[in-house]
Design brief:
Elements: E1 2-4, E2 7-9, H1 12-22, H2 25-35, H3 38-57, H4 65-81, H5 88-98, H6 105-111, E3 124-125, E4 130-131
Antiparallel strand pairs: 1-2, 3-4
Helix pairs in contact: 1-2, 3-5, 4-5, 4-6
Length: about 130
């Protein structure tokens, strides 16, 4: 609350907090997400997509990273072109597609990399002195 000439004036943030507090928790979370700035919504959507990609990659745990990424990219294209596929796996694939479309195998490869391997694009891979994965 801001004070203006002796009167208490609610800021937009205060009013929004009061409105969200009056709503049920699920509705408040939805509305807060919709009112977030575009960059924050995109960041959250990409984080959700990355989590879904990692979950989908778990089905290819027996494969090395590159073949697993290629298999998942192929599966995403197949699901996109087959609207009648149902089940837990197609639902996960559709969630990935809904959060950002199909992905090239290289992007899946980068998302599936362990955190210690991920690095900024254009930096050199420390072990080989070559561009990173």
């Amino acid at each position: 609350m801001q004070r203006h000439s002796g009167w208490a004036v609610a800021t937009d943030a205060d009013r929004l907090a009061a409105i969200l507090a009056a709503l049920p928790a699920e509705d408040a979370a939805f509305l807060a997400g919709q009112l977030a700035p575009p960059w924050q919504r995109r960041r959250d959507r990409l984080a959700e997509r990355a989590a879904a990609v990692r979950e989908a990659l778990a089905a290819h745990a027996g494969l090395a990273r590159k073949p697993a990424a290629i298999a998942l990219a192929t599966e995403l294209v197949r699901i996109t072109s087959t609207p009648h596929a149902r089940g837990p796996r197609p639902d996960l694939m559709r969630r990935i597609i809904d959060l950002g479309g199909t992905l090239a195998w290289r992007r899946i490869y980068d998302i599936g990399a362990p955190a210690e391997v991920q690095q900024k694009p254009g930096t050199l891979h420390p072990a080989a002195g070559m561009p990173g994965p």
